[in-house]
């Protein structure tokens, strides 16, 4: 695996790239970053956008192949990522994920919902009106999503405690006039314990949760 930090150069080439792909939110970002992987027919990378104090944007990119650095448009710093993990090892982590829940109506039709908005709706329908209580219920729903035992077993980890929910963002991005993208992201920060290193590393490369092509799913880890 390769972990890269990518930013745009202050160049005419970068401006032309932004102009050509701009205006479609995170979908545009995905398309622009794909320019670093021109030999790939299918997306083989995860990414996450970060904003600096000066307002400039940078992207963490996790990929199975090394990105091609087009220095005229991008500034790319890449390192090989080869974590040596053992069962029982504790790691601090940050994760931007798209937590969802699937419900089935009386006609048997299933629908996927934003976990936090689903919790907000349920709280209001049950008579909760206090904004702080609703916020806490929404946050707890996001925590319960990531702490689901079956999900954690699939990932090969356990959580030492419920992670902190740092931010919640609703995104709107358009592929074209007909195809509207609506999704949410939650930034988690916490501590996990590796139970199955092979399973966890495979999931780390694949990404966690949904909306991986839209800037979700990339987990950053650090030994503690």
UniProtKB/TrEMBL annotation:
SMART domains: CRISPR_assoc. Pfam families: CRISPR_assoc (PF08798). InterPro entries: CRISPR-assoc_prot_Cse3 (IPR010179). This is Type I-E CRISPR-associated protein Cas6/Cse3/CasE. It comes from Marinomonas phaeophyticola.
């Amino acid at each position: 695996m390769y972990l890269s930090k990518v930013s745009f150069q202050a160049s005419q080439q970068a401006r032309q790239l932004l102009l050509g792909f701009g205006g479609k939110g995170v979908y545009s970002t995905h398309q622009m970053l794909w320019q670093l992987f021109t030999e790939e027919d299918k997306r083989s990378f995860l990414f996450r956008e970060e904003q600096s104090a000066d307002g400039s944007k940078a992207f963490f990119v996790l990929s199975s192949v090394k990105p091609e650095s087009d220095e005229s448009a991008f500034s790319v710093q890449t390192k090989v990522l080869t974590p040596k993990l053992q069962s029982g090892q504790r790691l601090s982590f940050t994760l931007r994920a798209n937590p969802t829940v699937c419900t089935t109506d009386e006609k048997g039709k299933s629908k996927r919902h934003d976990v936090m908005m689903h919790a907000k709706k349920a709280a209001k329908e049950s008579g909760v009106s206090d904004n702080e209580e609703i916020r806490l219920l929404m946050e707890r729903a996001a925590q319960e999503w990531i702490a689901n035992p079956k999900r954690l077993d699939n990932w090969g980890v356990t959580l030492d405690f419920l992670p902190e929910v740092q931010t919640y963002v609703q995104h709107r991005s358009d592929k074209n006039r007909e195809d509207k993208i609506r999704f949410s992201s939650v930034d988690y920060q916490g501590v996990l314990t590796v139970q199955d290193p092979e399973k966890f590393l495979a999931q780390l490369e694949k990404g966690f949760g949904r909306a991986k092509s839209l800037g979700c799913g990339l987990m950053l880890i650090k030994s503690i």
